[in-house]
């Protein structure tokens, strides 16, 4: 986030915002200056002239009250449009990343952008408005008596030096708040993703302690930031008060020495108040802006698109050689050499802990092997590394989106709508959809699920079927579907030209026989079952 980009996000509106605040500053200055004439006429008992000046002051005041809300409204529009652009760039960045921490992403898109709005964007408009008012106030004072300006400048220098005392501490406190909030969101995401299990085993106390600890850390960080911010305001307030009292004293001397009138005296004090209050606002705004330096660096990184340099290649075969996966604790899984040819239907079996799901993670480039290699083959026999291979994957826990069932299957490719009816029949989803009034146009509710586990799996199976995925990995993809439905779905899948590698338990001998062959894994490393399915 930068003030330059904020202004450029909508230049015509940006110009209008600046103009609104310029007119506001001019109107306020004139309004305060006219008090001189009203006061002097009152002291002379020139009632008609005094009333005339008071009426003009009232009219100018109404004009001022109109301009400030207008400028504020336009600036809020500018900020929200700019934040929308930032979020769009961030989403492109996250889309291109290999892995995304959802809690961290939520923190950046929500909390951190709010911090930047409050402590960076809004303070800049305060600075612009205040500087205009201060400059005009100083100009007005010059017309009254030059020495008031000199005194104001000397005191201003002292006031401007005061914020340096707490500037670094406040910046550190803001960075800690952002980091602590990210940790808190991660904790929420990690623990509440398994809320059902916690309820099942009555682990409320454990959940409460885990969240309470991180919540307290976040509260402490916010309290510390608030404390330092309060100290900064106290210091700035003391400087402001000393400055105003000092100028008031000097103006009184000038009045009693008959160098200025009573109207000049009142007007000078009004402008001095604008100057010192303005300085306080500018100092506070600058302190806030500097406290966001670290966050602005993060946002600058996140709005840069991640380039996906390697285009995914469609593959239909795979081979492995001397494949070994080593865990952080030193334990190893050693895999037999294998080759799966184009169009083969292979069942991956083995006891729990033999490394079936880990092998899938290697094939999907989620885990790097410590030794050996896995290479896919394209239709032209070209060898392709896992990170460059286009591989379909269906897990037990289906990934769905809050849109229609049809969109979840076609993945928003309208050209595939013509094949939808046929695919729904193949995966045995058509009878389920007949129960919904909107059929395939039923919107999936992720908050209060309106699809069963088996129906969700069928949707994802239909997704792979309709896109004619050439190489498909299935990890217990029919575990929530009844035996008869599984039999029919698997039979349809095995009729396709796709190359299939499937993990499954408790298949009947009849169903196993439909596969071309099995790759059976055995336990070959002590403790491997602690790291796999």
TrEMBL record:
<keyword id="KW-0812">Transmembrane</keyword>
<dbReference type="InterPro" id="IPR036640">
    <property type="entry name" value="ABC1_TM_sf"/>
</dbReference>
<keyword id="KW-1133">Transmembrane helix</keyword>
<feature type="transmembrane region" description="Helical">
    <location>
        <begin position="51"/>
        <end position="75"/>
    </location>
</feature>
<dbReference type="InterPro" id="IPR003593">
    <property type="entry name" value="AAA+_ATPase"/>
</dbReference>
<dbReference type="InterPro" id="IPR003439">
    <property type="entry name" value="ABC_transporter-like_ATP-bd"/>
</dbReference>
<protein>
    <submittedName>
        <fullName>ABC transporter ATP-binding protein</fullName>
    </submittedName>
</protein>
<dbReference type="Pfam" id="PF00664">
    <property type="entry name" value="ABC_membrane"/>
</dbReference>
<dbReference type="InterPro" id="IPR027417">
    <property type="entry name" value="P-loop_NTPase"/>
</dbReference>
<keyword id="KW-0547">Nucleotide-binding</keyword>
<dbReference type="InterPro" id="IPR039421">
    <property type="entry name" value="Type_1_exporter"/>
</dbReference>
<dbReference type="GO" id="GO:0005524">
    <property type="term" value="F:ATP binding"/>
</dbReference>
<dbReference type="Pfam" id="PF00005">
    <property type="entry name" value="ABC_tran"/>
</dbReference>
<dbReference type="InterPro" id="IPR011527">
    <property type="entry name" value="ABC1_TM_dom"/>
</dbReference>
<feature type="transmembrane region" description="Helical">
    <location>
        <begin position="148"/>
        <end position="166"/>
    </location>
</feature>
<feature type="domain" description="ABC transporter">
    <location>
        <begin position="318"/>
        <end position="531"/>
    </location>
</feature>
<keyword id="KW-0067">ATP-binding</keyword>
<dbReference type="InterPro" id="IPR025662">
    <property type="entry name" value="Sigma_54_int_dom_ATP-bd_1"/>
</dbReference>
<feature type="domain" description="ABC transmembrane type-1">
    <location>
        <begin position="16"/>
        <end position="291"/>
    </location>
</feature>
<keyword id="KW-0472">Membrane</keyword>
């Amino acid at each position: 986030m930068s003030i330059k980009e904020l202004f450029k996000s909508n230049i015509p509106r940006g110009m209008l915002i600046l103009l609104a605040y310029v007119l506001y500053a001019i109107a306020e200055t004139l309004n305060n200056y006219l008090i001189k004439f009203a006061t002097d006429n009152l002291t002379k008992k020139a009632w008609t002239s005094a009333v005339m000046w008071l009426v003009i002051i009232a009219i100018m005041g109404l004009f001022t009250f109109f301009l400030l809300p207008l400028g504020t409204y336009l600036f809020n529009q500018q900020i929200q449009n700019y934040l929308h652009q930032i979020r769009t760039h961030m989403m492109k960045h996250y889309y291109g990343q290999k892995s995304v921490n959802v809690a961290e992403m939520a923190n950046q898109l929500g909390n951190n952008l709010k911090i930047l709005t409050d402590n960076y964007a809004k303070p800049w408009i305060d600075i612009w408005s205040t500087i205009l008012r201060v400059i005009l106030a100083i100009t007005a004072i010059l017309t009254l008596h030059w020495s008031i300006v000199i005194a104001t400048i000397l005191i201003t220098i002292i006031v401007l030096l005061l914020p340096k005392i707490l500037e670094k501490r406040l910046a550190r406190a803001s960075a800690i708040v952002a980091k602590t909030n990210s940790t808190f969101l991660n904790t929420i995401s990690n623990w509440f993703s398994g809320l059902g299990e916690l309820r099942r085993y009555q682990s409320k106390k454990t959940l409460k302690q885990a969240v309470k600890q991180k919540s307290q850390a976040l509260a402490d960080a916010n309290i510390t930031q608030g404390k330092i911010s309060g100290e900064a305001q106290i210091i700035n307030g003391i400087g402001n008060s000393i400055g105003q009292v000092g100028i008031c004293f000097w103006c009184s001397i000038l009045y009693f020495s008959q160098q200025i009138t009573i109207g000049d005296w009142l007007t000078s004090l009004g402008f001095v108040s604008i100057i010192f209050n303005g300085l306080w606002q500018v100092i506070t705004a600058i302190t806030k802006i500097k406290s966001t330096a670290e966050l602005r660096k993060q946002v600058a990184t996140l709005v840069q698109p991640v380039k996906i340099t390697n285009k995914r290649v469609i593959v239909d075969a795979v081979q492995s050689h001397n494949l070994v996966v080593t865990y952080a604790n030193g334990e190893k899984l050693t895999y037999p050499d294998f080759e799966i040819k184009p169009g083969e239907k292979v069942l991956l079996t083995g006891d729990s802990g033999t490394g079936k799901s880990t092998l899938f993670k290697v094939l999907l480039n989620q885990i790097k092997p410590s030794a050996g290699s896995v290479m896919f083959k394209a239709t032209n026999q070209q060898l392709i590394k896992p990170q460059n291979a286009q591989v379909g994957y269906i897990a037990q826990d289906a990934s769905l989106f809050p849109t229609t069932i049809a969109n979840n299957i076609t993945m928003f490719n309208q050209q595939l709508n013509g094949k939808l009816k046929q695919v729904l029949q193949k995966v045995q989803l058509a009878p389920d959809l007949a129960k919904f009034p909107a059929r395939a146009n039923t919107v999936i509710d992720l908050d209060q699920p309106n699809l069963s586990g088996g129906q969700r799996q069928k949707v994802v199976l239909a997704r792979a079927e309709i896109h004619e995925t050439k190489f498909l990995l299935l990890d217990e993809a029919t575990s929530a579907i009844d035996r008869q439905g599984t039999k029919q779905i698997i039979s349809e899948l095995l009729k396709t030209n796709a190359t299939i590698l499937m993990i499954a338990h408790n298949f009947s001998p009849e169903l196993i026989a439909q596969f071309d062959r099995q790759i059976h894994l055995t336990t070959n490393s002590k403790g491997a079952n602690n790291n796999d399915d």
